[in-house]
Design goal:
The chain is mainly α. The longest helix is centred in the N-terminal third of the chain and has 42 residues. It has twelve helices and no strands.
C-alpha cells in the first residue's frame, strides 16, 4: 500500500486552510498516529518561531548599534555634548525599536482583512417554485453570483422584510453589505444569525462578523469574536487562531 505524504496536509491544517471535510479526515488520521501528531506540533512551533525571527534579528542589530554609538560618544569631548548626543541617539533607537515591535505584533487591520477575507460562496441552488418571494430570492441570488453586490444587497434586504427568519438570506445580505463597505449593516445582519438558535450559518456569521470588526478597527471586539471561534469547533478556528497572533 502506498504511504501517504502528509507534508502538504500538515501545512494546510496548521494554516487553517482546510475545509470542514478535510479537517475531519485529517484529525481522524491524527488519532493514534503519534509520529504524525508530533510532526504537526513540530511544524507549528517552527512557524511560531519564524514569526519572531525578524523581531529578534532587529533587536540584536539595535543592541550592537547602541553599543557602537555609546563607545564613539564616550570618546568625544565635553560632558554636556556627550549627554545630549547620547540621549538623542538612544531615544532614536528606542523609537525605531518600538515602531518595529508595533508593526510586527500589530499588522494593519487593512492588511489582515484583505489577506483573510474572501466572499462567501453560496452552495445552494436556485428555487424552482414561482412564488413572489422565491422569484425575489432567486433574482437576489443571481446578482450575488454575478458579484453585483449593490443589487443583491437591495433585493436581499427587501426579501428579508417579509422573511426575517430566513438565515440564508440574512447571511448573504450581510456578505453583500461587507462587499459594499456598509459594515454597520453587515454587523447587524451577522449578529442576528449568531443570536438566533444555532443553525447552519452560525459558523459563517461568526467568522465574517470578526472580519467586520477587523475592517472597522474594532480590535477588542475582533479579538473577542476570534477567541470564541478559536475555542469552538468552528471550521474557521485555525484561521481565527492565525489572525489572533497578528492583532
Amino acid at each position: 500500500m502506498k504511504t501517504i505524504d502528509f507534508s502538504y496536509f500538515i501545512e494546510r491544517y496548521n494554516a487553517g486552510e482546510m475545509d470542514q471535510l478535510e479537517i475531519k479526515w485529517f484529525e481522524k488520521e491524527l488519532e493514534g498516529n503519534d509520529s504524525l501528531h508530533k510532526e504537526v506540533m513540530l511544524r507549528k512551533k517552527a512557524d511560531q518561531s519564524l514569526l519572531h525571527h525578524d523581531l529578534i534579528s532587529l533587536r540584536n542589530k539595535l543592541t550592537v548599534l547602541e553599543k557602537t554609538c555609546k563607545e564613539k560618544l564616550v570618546e568625544s569631548s565635553g560632558k554636556k555634548a556627550l549627554g545630549i548626543r547620547y540621549a538623542a541617539v538612544f531615544t532614536g533607537l528606542i523609537l525605531i525599536g518600538s515602531m518595529f515591535v508595533i508593526q510586527s505584533r500589530n499588522q494593519s487591520t487593512e492588511k489582515i482583512y484583505s489577506k483573510n477575507y474572501s466572499v462567501y460562496e453560496y452552495p445552494g441552488t436556485s428555487r424552482t417554485t414561482q412564488t413572489a418571494a422565491d422569484i425575489q430570492f432567486t433574482r437576489a441570488l443571481q446578482y450575488y453570483a454575478d458579484n453585483d453586490f449593490t443589487n443583491s444587497g437591495i433585493l436581499f434586504r427587501e426579501f428579508l422584510k417579509n422573511n426575517p427568519e430566513n438565515m440564508q438570506a440574512t447571511l448573504l445580505y450581510g456578505i453583500s453589505e461587507m462587499e459594499n463597505k456598509n459594515f454597520s449593516n453587515a454587523e447587524s445582519s451577522l449578529n442576528k444569525i449568531i443570536k438566533a438558535e444555532y443553525n447552519l450559518y452560525t459558523d459563517h456569521a461568526q467568522w465574517y462578523l470578526a472580519l467586520c470588526y477587523v475592517a472597522t478597527g474594532e480590535t477588542i471586539e475582533a479579538k473577542q469574536q476570534l477567541s470564541a471561534i478559536r475555542n469552538s469547533e468552528s471550521i474557521y478556528r485555525n484561521k481565527a487562531r492565525k489572525i489572533l497572533r497578528k492583532l
